[in-house]
């Protein structure tokens, strides 16, 4: 008896062509299926490198049309690229005094309005005038580094920012007014830190009233802007929902570096020293999570990462059992603040960078790892999908941007050496990279303490100061020695670009 041959990606494509021709598949759905084909992902290759920055490239993003790529770097410059030709359309100084962490083009502004945030804590607005002239102005400030901003979908005026001071701000470019919404508070004051240092913020594209933030603890918090009273009559800061894998509830050694919403309102959360998890709305812990004892054996998270094809296993939860979030394994996220993203016309894939300098691509459904691509000599931090095609842009510790398109003749296979040992848990969120960085943080804390002393509440700042000094002392034991050096004996810059 003959065994039935398994259908390949090419077989499925031919079958879809036949269905389209006989009218069983619309042209729109055919285009989506073709674009989301695994064969397309397996043929991704570097089209070109965009080389102009003189420092680590910390942010890449597209304009709504997808013909312009904007980037920001440690050199404090913002560059607008014609990525198809590799030509620089415009390069200007951002006005920041330190590394640019994010730069985005506001929609429906003819690509003339750009917002940025940076390591100096500033949030700035750049307006492109006639003949390439650029004016930048300060919109808001954070006490400490401002890692991310999020634009309200379809709005040319409104966006949000978050920073290491835990503050979330709402900014309207029509008035240039920054409204301080709240300072994110930790659950039961973990780690002596009353404020959660925020690294990521994302807005639900299906309902822009909801936005999520994540940072130096294990919880992704979902907020509803409709609960904010713009006259300041009530305090706004209580999330409407919390998200966390069951085995990480109560774990003080992890934090969140990246967040992303899918078009189906799923929330993707990337953890340091851990994995990436996908949550649906019914997986939330509610508005008042209560830490419990360990509820699972770390979801197969032992000393080794056993199987890069593994999927989420149901958590052994007592009482009201909920579906476990999908988990994505294989990459390493210990050294830098890495983003995470969806990829494909209907968010069929999950993409992330890694400390090993590679790009990892998983199938969203099932969590199967299908592609690993060499993309940086050190670390890949940013991966930005094109808004309309299966093109990717990536950046990291190196000074260039890689543009990826499906052009390879041969289908790629997974490398054999992607099994990596699980990192030793450490509280890297509070690690200082240098005495100079420590002094900058101390100045920021002193400002807070002065304000709180005026109101008679300075215990939070004292706890923060104690934790900072203890962490700095604990990470000054020479652990960042030869491992952080390149072939020339110089430091790779991974620590400098991690914050």
The major sheet is characterized as:
4 strands, antiparallel
Helix content: 10-25%
If you average the pLDDT, what whole number results? 79
Q: Unreliable segments (pLDDT under 50, ≥5 consecutive)? A: 292-319, 428-434, 470-499
Sheet with most strands: strand arrangement: 1-28-27-26
Radius of gyration, taken over Cα atoms and rounded to an integer in Å: 23 Å
Question: How many β-strand stretches?
Answer: 28
Q: Termini separation (Å)?
A: 62 Å
Protein name: Transducin/WD40 repeat-like superfamily protein
InterPro entries: DCAF8 (IPR045151), WD40/YVTN_repeat-like_dom_sf (IPR015943), WD40_repeat_dom_sf (IPR036322), WD40_rpt (IPR001680)
Keywords: Repeat, WD repeat
Describe this structure in words.
This protein is of the alpha+beta class and 499 residues long. 13% of the residues lie in helices and 32% in strands. It contains six helices and 28 strands. The chain has a four-stranded antiparallel β-sheet, with no helix packed on it. A four-stranded antiparallel β-sheet has the order 2-3-4-5, with no helix packed on it. A four-stranded antiparallel β-sheet has the order 6-7-8-9, with no helix packed on it. Strand 23 and strand 24 form a beta hairpin. Helix 1 runs antiparallel to helix 2 and helix 4 runs antiparallel to helix 5. It is globular and about 60 Å long. It starts with 8 loop residues before the first helix and ends with a helix. 42% of the residues are buried. The C terminus is likely disordered.
């Amino acid at each position: 008896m003959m065994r039935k041959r398994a259908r390949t990606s090419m077989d499925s494509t031919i079958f879809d062509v036949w269905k389209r021709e006989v009218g069983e598949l619309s042209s729109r759905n055919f285009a989506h299926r073709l674009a989301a084909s695994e064969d397309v992902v397996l043929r991704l290759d570097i089209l070109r490198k965009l080389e102009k920055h003189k420092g680590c490239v910390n942010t890449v993003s597209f304009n709504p049309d997808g013909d312009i790529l904007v980037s920001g770097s440690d050199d404090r410059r913002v560059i607008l690229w014609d990525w198809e030709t590799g030509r620089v359309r415009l390069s200007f100084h951002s006005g920041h005094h330190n590394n640019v962490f994010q730069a985005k083009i506001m929609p429906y502004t003819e690509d003339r309005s750009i917002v940025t945030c940076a390591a100096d804590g500033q949030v700035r607005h750049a307006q492109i005038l006639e003949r390439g002239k650029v004016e930048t102005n300060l919109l808001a400030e954070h006490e400490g580094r401002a890692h991310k901003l999020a634009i309200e979908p379809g709005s040319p005026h409104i966006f949000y920012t978050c920073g290491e001071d835990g503050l979330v701000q709402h900014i309207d470019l029509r008035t240039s007014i920054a409204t301080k919404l709240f300072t994110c508070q930790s659950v039961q004051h973990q780690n002596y830190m009353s404020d959660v240092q925020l690294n990521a913020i994302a807005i639900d594209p299906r309902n822009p009233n909801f936005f999520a933030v994540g940072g130096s603890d294990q919880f992704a918090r979902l907020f509803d802007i409709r609960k904010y009273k713009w006259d300041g009559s009530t305090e706004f800061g209580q999330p409407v929902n919390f998200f966390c894998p069951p085995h990480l509830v109560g774990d003080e050694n992890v934090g969140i570096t990246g967040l992303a919403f899918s078009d189906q309102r799923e929330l993707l959360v990337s953890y340091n020293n851990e994995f990436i998890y996908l949550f649906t709305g019914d997986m939330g812990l509610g508005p008042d999570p209560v830490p419990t004892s360990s509820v699972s054996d770390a979801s197969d998270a032992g000393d080794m990462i056993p199987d890069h094809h593994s999927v989420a296993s149901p958590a052994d939860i007592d009482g009201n059992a909920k579906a476990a979030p999908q988990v994505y394994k294989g990459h390493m996220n210990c050294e830098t603040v890495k983003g995470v993203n969806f990829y494909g016309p209907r968010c069929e894939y999950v993409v992330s960078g890694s400390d090993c300098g590679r790009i990892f691509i998983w199938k969203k459904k099932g969590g199967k790892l299908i592609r690993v691509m060499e993309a940086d000599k050190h670390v890949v931090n940013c991966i930005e999908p094109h808004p309309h095609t299966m093109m990717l842009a990536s950046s990291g510790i190196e000074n260039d941007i890689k543009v990826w398109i499906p052009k390879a003749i041969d289908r790629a296979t997974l490398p054999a050496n992607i099994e990596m040992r699980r990192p030793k848990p450490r509280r890297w969120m509070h690690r200082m990279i240098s005495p100079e960085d420590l002094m900058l943080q101390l100045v920021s804390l002193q400002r807070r303490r002065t304000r709180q002393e005026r109101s008679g509440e300075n215990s939070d700042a004292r706890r923060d100061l104690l934790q900072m000094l203890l962490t700095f002392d604990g990470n000054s034991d020479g652990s960042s020695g030869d491992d952080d050096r390149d072939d020339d004996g110089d430091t790779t810059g991974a620590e400098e670009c991690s914050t």
